[in-house]
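Exam revision sheet. Question 4 asks you to relate a sequence to its structure. Input first:
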Amino acid sequence: MTSPLDIGIEVKEALAAGVPVVALESTIISHGMPWPRNVETALRVEETIRKGGAVPATIAIVAGRLVAGLDRAGIEHIGRPDASVEKASRRDLPRLVASGADGATTVAATMIVAAMAGIRVFATGGIGGVHRGVESSWDVSADLEELGRTPVCVVCAGAKAILDLPKTLEYLETKGVPVVGYRTDELPAFYSAHSGVPLVERADNPREIALRMRAALGLGFSSGMVVANPVPESMAMGRTEMERAIEAALSAAAAAGVKGRDVTPFLLAKMKELTSGESLESNIALVLNNASLAAAIAVAYAEETKRLDGI
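Answer key, C-alpha cells:
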C-alpha cells in the first residue's frame, strides 16, 4: 500500500544524516492565531529552531497527503482566513486522506505524523487536556491519549490554561506519561508560569531530557513525554487576571452553545478580546520559547544517540 506520508526534502536529508529535527503543529496557524500574525509567528518559530541548530518540520495535511516539512507557500496557504482547512486530530486523518482534503494537525495528529517520519521532538504552545466541567461534558482531549501511546517528546508551556490542570495531570499520570518541569517544580499554566500544581519530575538542562528519552526507548516504552516549559516571566500574565478572563470566556462559550472541537479556538479568541491582545502576545512568546528549548533538546538527543550508539 502506498504511504500517505510526504517528507520535505530538507527534513528527509536531515533525518538521513542524523541532523536534529523538530516537528511543529499547524492548528496553531489555522485555528490558534489571527491572520497575518499566525503566518508571521510560524515563520519566526521555524527560524528560531534553525538558530538552535535543528531543522523545523511543520506538519499538516495537504490534498490528502500527510506532509512533514511544509514550505513557506504551504504555511501561508493553511494560515489564510479564507482557506478551507479542517482542524484534524487522530480520528480525522483517515477521512481527510481518503477525500484528498486539507487539514491542520492538532498535537495528537502532529505526534502521529512525526512518529511516522522518525521525528522524536515536537514543539507547540500548549497541549489539550481535561476540560473544566468534565463531569458533565466528558470532554477530554485526544492529545492525552496520544501521549500515552506515541513516543514523541512534546515541549509545551503546560496544558492550555482554559483546562482543568490538576485533572489533566492526573490523566497523564494514569497513562504513564512523564511530565517534566523545565527548571520548574510546578506545572506552568500556559499564559502564566505558575499554577500551584506540583510536578514530580524536573530537568534543568536539555541533556537530562535527552537521556530520559533514550532510557524510555531502551525500555521499549511507546508513550511520549511532556516537557513543561514556563512562559518567560516578562511575557507572562498574572494568575488572577488570567482566571477572570478564562471564567468570562467559558461563560461566553456556554451562552453561545459552543461545544467539542470548536471550544478551544473560541476560548482562545475570546481570551484575546478580553485581555486586549495581551494573551496573544503571551501565546507568541511562549511558542518561541518552546521552539528554542525543543531545538536544544533535539540537538542533545542527536548527540546522545551518536554517543550511545557508538556512531
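Marking note for examiners. The radius of gyration is 18 Å.
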